[in-house]
Every structure is written in structure tokens, then in C-alpha cells.
Amino acid sequence: MAGSEINGAAARGTLNTRLKVGQFSAADPNAPTDVPQLKLMTPDGAAWKTLAPGAVFNDAVNLRAYTTGGARLMRYFMFSLVTVDASGQMADLRGGLTSLDPGVTAPGEGQQDSGLVSLPAAGLQGDIYVQVSALDFNYNRVAYLVPVTLRRSGTPGAVTAPTGVAAVAYTLSERIGYIMGVGPQGAPQGSNLWVSVSWAQPASTEGLTGFRVLRAAAAGGPYTQVAFADTAQCSAATKRCTVSDNTSTLEADRDYFYRVTAVGAAEATSDAPALPSTHTLLPFRPQLVSPAKDSLGADLLPTYTLRTNAFATGATGARFTLRTDDVFTGAGRLTMPSVVLQKTTSTTVTDASSGRVYFDSAGAAAGNVVNYDAATDLLSLPHSLDRVALKLTPAPLQANRRYSWYVHMGYAYRLQDPAQPQSATNPIVAYAVYSDPDTTKVVPGGVTQSYTDVYDFTTRP
Fold it and tell me: In angstroms, rounded to a whole number, what is the distance separating the alpha carbons of residues 428 and 278?
């Protein structure tokens, strides 16, 4: 179906499930190629007025956008608040997607309207920009950048320097489109990398007007402002304040140092970290090796081998959960125990739940249940690993049967000091996510990344 997409559908028992599909031409040569025209508005009492350059907002930014001129069907409107640093780079970008339901407006009929959109202005003040972009179904894109002023109603007072500053970088194996949801942490469109920065919630917020998040490539600086926040980003449950560094200047495989400044009548900045706050990882893409794709005559107790590609990303280790499915029935799913491959003082493979050691490069080879070859980066796991580890008879696959195997869940991670074991003082500071499709996320932050390779094979007669 050209120009349409189905992400999934489910039918349960006798319950009727209806699926609405919008059918539109993909890159229709007869469709207009001129960019869409938008009208940007802001509330004026019970009415609306045009958003003019230099408009003043107090505490919140409320907007609306709708199409004008030749009517057309839009994929989305994207609203953002933007700050620009001295070099001209966008230093902070907040906003959200306003998705549109194609079923409510037929192509070429009427206007499409976002309705009232309230943008998160927490921590921002002074001269900023409103950015509104839109895309129609023939992939014509338009963007508006309007300078505005944001005033804060709070009275500034004395503040103290933030403490407990921490950072966790996230790299996804796929780049993100505007339509793909990525959970509360958020990442900019066209990106697969962002950093979640957090710090201890202050005991008192009296006199506090906001926080400025600073980043540098070295502990001594220079530090550049990359995000704003205020107490709206603080959680009463965790006693932590959290904001994302979504700037386009982030690069993979880099050390970054973060500091946070509390802003009031004056400013107070956290201490410079002794170690990098995070090290951004390259995308993580493990490669299935055997049983090979579409192979025949596989053993009934196969050994599953994959090239991890974890340490090449800059990671300290990786976690994998393998699955084997019966291709014809969809039943007989075998989920292997989740294993952790880690390289610190030695290279080990352990059970992610129990901590049972399956492999240790510093131990006797005879005691290893699985194998990891550092020279080739190949990790080999026996079928029915949990039973093999307990010295029980493994349950074989059926003969002359087609199966598929894949990495159901997998991510690489990096410790703050990669040479030392994980501890409360040596936490995970970066993730590279390959696949994390379960409802309960393994990776903190609620990241959804469901891409994975699947290899089919047929067992011997």
C-alpha cells in the first residue's frame, strides 16, 4: 500500500478488532511540490492573534498552527522552544509531536489545525525562539523560527550549588523519525543519541528560578550550556531532577563532562567531575553467525553463536536474551536465560538474574558452560542453557522442523571506569540499545527499540 504503514494489529478471542488504514499516494507526481503554508497563532483572551516576532510570554508558551492556502493533508506538526548559543548552534530544544489523524480530513478538503499546544518552558527565560515545522504526505517540509521573549514570575533569591550530578548516554541502533515514539527521555528527530543528565533535588527551591546544564569535552572545560530545567523536572519520588541533552553537537564514542548551575539572584555551579560523566557509545548491532540463515540439517541441540560487536562500540559489556521459535506453529518458544558479557579485570559471561558464572577467561576452561573467543568476538551458547548449566538433560528441538532464532533483547553498556567492576560508585553511564521490545523495559528510561535480525534454520531428519 503506497504511502501507508501498519505497525501491528492484534485479535483476541471473539472480540472484533477494527484496523483503520489511510491510503495515500507515495510521492504522487501530480501532488503539489510547494511547501505547506502555516498560520501561527497565540491565545488573546478568548480569541486568537497572530504570533508576531518579539511576542512576550509569561511562564508558559501556548501556540496553535493550521494550514492556509491550498489545502493538503499533513503528517504532523512539530513544536519546539529553541535557544541558540554564541556559535549559532541550537543549545537547547524542547517540544513535542502533534500527530494528525488522516481519517478526520479527506485529502484536499479543508484545513488541518493543531489546536492549542502548550510547550514545556521550564527553566527557560529571556530571548528564545519558537520553532514550528510540518510535513505533508508528499514529503514537502516547512519550518518557521520566530524570536520571542519568555518572562518568569518567580522572585530570584539565594541558591546553592547542585550535587550528585550524573549522566547516562543512550544510543539506538536505528535513527528516529518524527512518528516513532521513544518514551519519556526523548531524542531529536533524525538522531539516535542523547544524554539524560540528573542531579539531587535541592532541599529548598525558594529563590530558585531554574538550572543551566553545562557540558565539556574535558574536566577543566570550557563548558557550554546545553539545556535548561526548573523544579518541574524534579521528582518527589526519586528526589532527582532530570533533563535531556538533545543537542546536535553530541558525537558518538566521546567522553563528556557535565556540571549544573542553579540560577537565582546569583549562580552556583556543581563541582567538575574527576572522571567523564559519560562516554557515548557507537550503535550496537550484534551479528548472528550460526545456525546460519536458511541453513539445513541443524543439530537438535544446536549451539547458538553470534559476533557481539559490543567492545567495538566502546562498551564495557553487553546483555543478551536469545529466543528460538517454531516457524510453522508459532509455539514452542524457547527463551534462553539472559546473559551478561563483561570485560573488566577478566572477561566473564554470567546469568543476568542469578549471577551464575557461565564463563570466566581467568578460570579453568573445563568449568565454562559457554564460550567466548576474544580474538574473533564470538559468543557461543548451548541450546537449553539453563538445563546444561545445571547438568540436566537438555530438551532437544524436533527433527526435520523449521525454527527461527534471534536476539530478543540486547544492549551494550559502559561503566564510568571501565577497568573496575560495577558498583554503587562505578555505575553504568552509557547504553547502546539494539532491541528492547518487552513491556517492562530492561534499559532505564523506557526506551523502545524493537529491531532485530531473525535467522531461520531447519533441523536434521
Answer: 9
In terms of Cα–Cα distance, which of 143, 401, 425, 80 is closest to 273?
A: 425
Write the class of the CATH domain 37-151: mainly beta
Residue 323 — left, alpha, or beta (φ > 0 → left; ψ -120 to 50 → alpha)? beta
Grid cell locating 287: 551479528
Q: Measuring CA to CA, which residue among 312, 310, 365 is closest to residue 341? A: 310
Check: CB of residue 190 under 8 Å from CB of residue 203.
no
What is the C-alpha to C-alpha distance for residues 302 and 292, in angstroms, rounded to an integer?
11
**In Å, how far from its chain's centre is CA 314?**
18
Residue 312, classed as helix, strand or coil, is helix
The span from the CA of 106 to the CA of 130, in Å, is 29
User: pLDDT digit string (tens) for 90-145?
Assistant: 766 666 555 554 444 444 445 678 888 888 776 777 899 999 988 887 778 888 99
Rounded CA gap, 146 and 80, in Å? Answer: 11
Would you say residue 177 has pLDDT above 60? no
pLDDT (0 to 100) of residue 1: 39
Q: What's the pLDDT score for residue 102?
A: 45
Cell of 258: 557535565
Q: What is the largest CA-CA distance in the chain?
A: 79
- What is the reported pTM? 0.78
CA distance 342 to 365: 17
Domains 37-151 and 166-279 share a fold: yes
In degrees, rounded to 5, the angle at the alpha carbon of residue 336 between the alpha carbons of residues 333 and 342 is 150
DSSP string, 109-163: SS--B---EEE--TT--EEEEEEEEEEETT--EEEEEEEEEEE--SPP-------
CA distance 113 to 31: 21
- Cell match 480569541: residue? 47
Domain residue spans in the chain?
37-151, 166-279, 287-459
Point out which residues pair with 348 in neighbouring strands: 342, 360
Burial 136-170 (b: 16+ CB within 10 A, else e): bbbebebeeebebebebebeeeebebbeebbbbbb
Determine the Cα–Cα distance for residues 109 and 457; give it in Å rounded to an integer.
51
Q: Label residues 76-90 b or e (16+ Cβ within 10 Å = b).
A: bbbbbbbbeeeeeeb
Report the CATH fold assignment for 166-279. Answer: Immunoglobulin-like (2.60.40)
